[in-house]
Amino acid sequence: MFGKYKALWGKQPSFNSSYDAVIIGGGLHGLAAAYFLARNHGMTNVAVLENKFIGFGGAGRNTAIVRANQRTQENLPLYKEALDMWPILTRELDFNLMFNNCGNLNLAHSQAAIKAMRLQVATAQFHGIDSRLIGPEECKELVPALDISDRPRYPIAGGMFHPPGGVLRHDAVVWGLAKGAAKHGVHIHQGTEVTGIGVEKGRIVSVDTNQGKIHTPRVLNAAGGYSAGISYSLLNIRLPISVLTIQAMVTQPLKPLLNHVVSSGAYHCYANQTLKGEIATGAHMDPWPNYTTQNTANYIKHQAEALTEFLPCLAGVKFMRCWSGLADMTPDMAPIIDGNDTIEGYYMNCGWGYFGFKSAAVTGKYMADFMKTGECPDILKPFNLKRYQNNRLMGETAALMSYSANN
């Protein structure tokens, strides 16, 4: 089985019967936690278990946009630190993550949207984040291809410009973190399925896999779209997570026309131009829970119509590739980062929806602190699971629903 997925970043590690920590999921959050456990805490006897291959899930199926223009005071400090970390991590890993802070422009199409952005900008500036409200003419100065006339169904009324935002190369981050973790002694086991988690007297003691049993006192569930299923099937812990598909695609290569990431909530559409000249574009999540990574004709039609509304120069451009990823979405569009009151040594980092990519490095750093000391860092405390029991949902989307752990 090991030969199926070769460790191209170094020598294939041995499969040990005991590790100080086991991380389920070879995506960005799992690899980042492993890297910082080894780098910051000297905990090198760590195993990352991936059922397929590293980056198989959401890490390799996204549009690689990074930003710190969320809405809530709990989210903003985490995302700001995450955005500041990418140049630092590039130097630390000695690996080109292809970070380009080209700026993020969110379009507004009504006065109500402008008012909401004004509050969002004020909150961001309070936290020292560069974000500003601009008018339609300034939007067009940033992106000359925008149509700011009254022709579109939803005319552009202004926008929120976030200069530090931008894009990274998602597979470069996967490989950089894998290489960095392996260099510090972490064992990354691909093609390794977790089939059970052993608990004795309220403590984690082992993990069962298709390669054999591992004895360990710590387990981190960082399996993205599969995290809720693992938590429930192996430990009978229900999580308020729905798994939804997010679709994306790229056009044929074009001459440079988009110098910034452009998004529109009204059209449920965002786009940026890659280094190869392709227009990479995505939309909101499909509105029904599923585990498929297939694209739909309805989505392709939506993207073509939405893009050509506010970027009419793209009319007639061909779509070349499409892909889909799974988003583990919570009711309030904020992650679940927590330990467990009844099972010592069990940690969760999941429910990121479509925010997981941009937050992976900084969350991995703090998760490493959490797993090493057993004390949750202050910056992660707002994301605990009990907020659903206490009806204290975060305001990122302010979904009006409650959750009971007994449901």
User: Strand order, biggest sheet?
Assistant: 5-6-4-14-15-16-13-17
What is the chains' assembly state? single chain
* Count of β-strands: 19
Please estimate the helix content. 25-40%
User: Pairing-aware structural class of the strands and helices?
Assistant: alpha/beta
Unreliable sequence segments:
398-407
Shape: globular
Detailed description of the structure:
This protein has 407 residues and is of the alpha/beta class. It folds into two domains: 15-102 and 166-239 and 332-407, FAD/NAD(P)-binding domain (3-Layer(bba) Sandwich); 104-163 and 242-329, 2-Layer Sandwich (D-Amino Acid Oxidase, Chain A, domain 2), CATH 3.30.9.10. It contains nine helices and 19 strands. It has helices spanning 28-41, 75-93, 111-126, 136-142, 170-183, 227-235, 297-310, 356-373, 386-389; strands at 21-24, 46-50, 65-66, 104-108, 132-134, 158-162, 166-167, 187-190, 194-200, 203-209, 212-215, 219-221, 242-251, 261-264, 269-273, 279-283, 319-329, 336-338, 346-350. An eight-stranded mixed beta sheet has the order 5-6-4-14-15-16-13-17, with helices on both faces. Strand 9 and strand 10 (203-209) form a beta hairpin.
Characteristics:
28% helix; 9 helices; alpha/beta; single chain; FAD/NAD(P)-binding domain; 2 domains; D-Amino Acid Oxidase, Chain A, domain 2; eight-stranded mixed beta sheet; six-stranded mixed beta sheet; 407 residues
